[in-house]
Write a structure and sequence with these properties.
- It is a single chain.
- With 292 residues, the protein is of the alpha/beta class.
- It is built from nine helices and eleven strands.
- The strands form three sheets. A six-stranded parallel beta sheet has the order 1-11-8-7-5-6. A three-stranded parallel beta sheet has the order 3-2-4, sandwiched between helices. Strands 9-10 form a two-stranded antiparallel sheet.
- Helix 6 crosses helix 7.
- Bound molecules: guanine.
- The site of guanine has 9 residues, from strand 4 and helix 6.
Length: 292
């Protein structure tokens, strides 16, 4: 079997197209959706991601404020930045790019973001709603982007067995909650670094979401014929044949494309969906700020 491509780029383009009308309506109400992105330090990959977020804002007519703090910034400076953004009335979304430098308490800082501006969906109030099965809070962008892509492709989830590889706050844990939620109705197993035999769990799964950050870990022998495989990994691996000396690799080996029914590519799969969902959360936050 040759897998069909789960084309996140095409799905994201559709999401963005739908947002244009909503953004125009906000502007008629004298409100321009406005996102602030805060980045601390000089991690090159994080700067690339933040650049993509800012460019998406420009494409859609969302205002963006890009705040860069040096790696030497104190936690107190980040706290003050967040507090000032919370108080800015014409600002609807705040994103603090992860990871923060090691000397900072990332979760403690996330707790400070006004939940109504928490477009990442990482605030305990938003994650707590998700745990309760309420889908009306801000949902984390990567996992909700994966769900949107599955539904866009017409992939059935009800009664399916799903394995989520990874239990991170950003992807794995919220992803498992979304897959098991009422209306989605998959039966979910979360595998992590202490899981005894992730391979055989995957070999029995209808759906595999790989979010571990290990290049090409999921090989064809891990995958059941006809499974749906979503690759959330973005890893830089050394490659001397490239001028820049590295290439991007997902968590899934390309050979899985010979066995799965659906496979999302890296790049062009989940990445554009994360950004599209961030834009959607920002527009939603702006809409909710308007009193009709
Ligand atoms: N780092 C990697 N993914 C994300 C994300 O979705 N949000 C934030 N804030 N940081 C990230």
């Amino acid at each position: 079997m040759v897998a069909q491509r789960l084309d996140g780029k095409a799905c994201a383009a559709k999401v963005e197209e739908e947002l244009l009308g909503r953004i125009a309506k906000c502007r008629e109400m004298m409100t321009q959706p406005h996102l602030a992105v805060v980045i601390v330090g000089d991690d090159p990959a994080s700067h690339v991601y933040v650049g993509s977020k800012v460019r998406a804002c420009e494409r859609l007519g969302i205002r963006s404020t890009h705040i860069e703090l040096p790696v030497t910034a104190t936690e107190d400076e980040v706290r003050k930045t967040i507090e000032s953004l919370n108080n800015q009335e014409d600002l609807h979304g705040i994103l603090v790019q992860s990871p923060l430098p090691n000397h900072m308490d990332e979760e403690g800082l996330t707790d400070l973001i006004d939940p109504s501006k928490d477009v990442d969906g990482f605030h305990p109030q938003n994650l707590g709603r998700l745990v309760q099965g309420r889908m009306d809070g801000m949902l984390p962008c990567t996992p909700s982007g994966v769900m949107r892509m599955l539904s866009w492709a017409g992939i059935e989830t009800e009664g399916k067995t799903a394995v989520v590889l990874g239990r991170s706050r950003i992807v794995g844990m919220p992803q498992s909650l979304l897959l098991g939620a009422k209306g989605v109705d998959s039966t979910v197993t979360v595998a992590h670094s202490r899981t005894k035999d992730a391979q055989s769990l995957c070999a029995n799964a209808d759906i595999i979401i790989a979010a571990v950050g290990r290049p090409e870990m999921v090989t064809a022998d891990w995958v059941k014929e006809g499974a749906v495989v979503v690759d959330v990994g973005i890893n830089r691996v050394e490659d001397d044949s490239r001028e820049r000396g590295w290439r991007l690799a997902g968590d899934v080996h390309p050979d899985v494309g010979q066995k799965a029914a659906w496979l999302s590519p890296v790049p062009g799969g989940v990445g554009p969906m994360t950004i599209a969902m961030l834009m959607e959360n920002t527009v939603r936050a702006a809409e909710l700020s308007i009193s009709f």
